[in-house]
Specification:
About 35% of the residues lie in helices and about 25% in strands. By secondary structure, the protein is α/β, with parallel strands linked by helices. It folds into two domains: about 110 residues, Carboxypeptidase-like, regulatory domain (Immunoglobulin-like, Sandwich); about 80 residues, no CATH class. Strands 1, 4, 7 and 8 form a four-stranded mixed β-sheet that branches. A four-stranded antiparallel β-sheet has the order 3-2-5-6, covered by helices on one side. Strands 9-10 form a two-stranded parallel ribbon. The chain starts with 8 loop residues before the first helix and ends with a helix.
Length: about 210
């Protein structure tokens, strides 16, 4: 399941309230009504990974669901009609699917691919690699000593440098995925561990 670090308590509270609204709406549904169901899967457009806890709601109606760890959602007990579905998750662009026709007792499947707000960062990484600029972004305003020339020389052996200019965690993750894939092709699997060990040995020699 795709996850984003640092989801706020406020967002969790919104999810709790949303779940309460959905349960309340379904409890108050008229008994005996001929109803249908909307189901589907939500994945991340860039890599096809399942997106759990994505909010899927029917616009203008009090019906909706959260995707599970496999990206699957199910909105049961929906009256017949034509609907518009909305998909939303922190760090991704909200999206909609219109003109969904639901008939009595039908199950309609609506799959969706969400797009990260950090997609341009992945494109930037590809452009930097094409220009010979290979760097790993260090997210946030890290209060750490700036790397010494000896430390830079170690990372250069593996074909990159750390960039401490600071950026959002999600965007750094999107950028670094592209760069790390390139470095794995260049250095082979396990290069991250090798870099850490080499840097640790250097720092221990200084003590």
């Amino acid at each position: 399941m795709f996850k984003i670090p640092g989801i706020s308590i406020c967002f969790v509270a919104v999810l709790v309230c949303f779940a309460h609204v959905v349960a309340d709406a379904q409890t108050k549904a008229p008994p005996g009504a001929a109803r249908g169901m909307i189901v589907g899967n939500v994945v991340v457009d860039e890599n096809g990974e399942a997106l759990g806890e994505c909010v899927v709601s029917i616009v203008g109606r009090r019906y909706g669901a959260l995707t599970d760890t496999t990206g699957f959602y199910r909105i049961p007990d929906v009256p017949p009609g034509t609907y518009r579905l909305q998909f939303s998750y922190v760090g991704f662009r909200p999206g909609e699917v219109d003109s969904i026709v639901l008939r009595p007792f039908d199950t309609v499947r609506v799959d969706y691919r969400v797009e990260s707000v950090c997609s341009p960062w992945a494109d930037s990484a590809r452009k930097d690699l094409a220009a010979g600029k290979v760097r790993i972004l260090v997210a946030g305003l890290m209060i750490v000593p700036y790397p010494t020339e000896e430390e830079k020389n170690i990372t250069r052996i593996y074909g990159f440098e750390y960039d401490y200019s600071g950026c959002a965690f999600m965007c750094a993750d999107e950028y670094n995925k592209v760069v790390e894939a390139y470095l794995t092709r260049r250095n082979g699997s396990g290069w991250q561990t090798s870099v850490r060990k080499d840097l640790d040995r250097l720092r221990q020699r200084r003590r």
